[in-house]
Amino acid sequence: xxxxxxxxxxxxxxxxxxxxxxxxxxxxxxxxxxxxxxxxxxxxxxxxxxxxxxxxxxxxxxxxxxxxxxxxxxxxxxxxxxxxxxxxxxxxxxxxxxxxxxxxxxxxxxxxxxxxxxxxxxxxxxxxxxxxxx
Length: 134
Fold this sequence. Notes:
Distance between the termini: 48 Å
Radius of gyration: 15 Å
CATH architecture: Roll
């Protein structure tokens, strides 16, 4: 358990800061070993991913298809649940085409760590269209 006295919003904010700074190990320390991540099943990296290994596999699957820039994280909390809204630009590695969408994530925090992340991109069809060679 890391920093149980800080709020769920502070934990999620710190997770974002660590990932954006390239501090993967530091970010992973904020995630429960039993983490559940849900991504839209229509995406190549979609579905349910469990634990640190699942997160790593999901990230590798994502990286096969896209590069991503994340800006303007905004957080709102209700108890142990934090809503994070970010603006993300996804650029397809194969086509070079990019699209910018908002992404909503629902993060649950327990015992000082993030236990669940549910991800809702604004428009999965536009994301998938970047992969289409036309």
